[in-house]
Amino acid sequence: MATPHNAAAKGDIAKTVLMPGDPLRAKFIAEHFLENAVCYNTVRGMYGYTGTYHGVPVSVQGSGMGMPSIGIYSYELFHEYDVDRILRIGTAGGVADHIHLRDVVLGQAACTDSNYAAQYHLAGTYAPIASFALLEQAYQTAGRLGIPVHVGNLLSTDVFYNEPSPLPQWAKMGVLATEMESAALYMNAAAAGKEALCIVTVSDCPLRGESTTAEERQTSFTDMMRIALETACA
């Protein structure tokens, strides 16, 4: 049954979904990597497709920007469409000194300044982490493909424009990169008893004033796409 945000019917979506933030990146993946891809959603321009990769059914769908947006879409995928695994393939800002433009980072965990965990009424601070099975598989897959990756902590923040920037302090605590979705995805997966992993490409390094273009972010970050697709089919 369709939801307010997704026109797909039960069975239209594969058990494993790749989720870029940008719906146009979902379209790019469907057109360049999947075989026999069929579009199942265009509601709010949030494209979703299902096809096969090496004969294995895989879906790809945009999540939008921020934890509220990925929170809605991933919740519906887990609970309404019986999806078992979501691999976020997004962009991030590198904050650690050794992280550079176009590096790929596997999000082992996600710090956050969000209040997203308040809904669970926990008597403490929840630490959102990735599925170790997916993380291990993605790391091994990257090695097999010859793609260097970093593994470590992300910062999922609710604030894009923040002055003064808190990023130097997060970098001091070992955070590799900052983005806006991973913590909510990890919490939704945990609450649903499902699996999630965030694979991000560094699109900018805000502390050094370095950045890539919108077109590069949409079409050229193929290393993380290949890692995610191969992991989904392992």
UniProtKB/TrEMBL annotation:
Record-linked PROSITE patterns: PNP_UDP_1
InterPro entries in the record: DeoD-type, Nucleoside_phosphorylase_CS, Nucleoside_phosphorylase_d, Nucleoside_phosphorylase_sf
CDD domains cross-referenced by the UniProt entry: PNP_EcPNPI-like
Domain of life the protein comes from: Bacteria
Chain's role: Catalyzes the reversible phosphorolytic breakdown of the N-glycosidic bond in the beta-(deoxy)ribonucleoside molecules, with the formation of the corresponding free purine bases and pentose-1-phosphate.
Assembly and oligomerization: Homohexamer; trimer of homodimers.
Protein name: Purine nucleoside phosphorylase DeoD-type
Species whose genome carries this gene: Ruminococcus callidus ATCC 27760
Gene of this entry: deoD
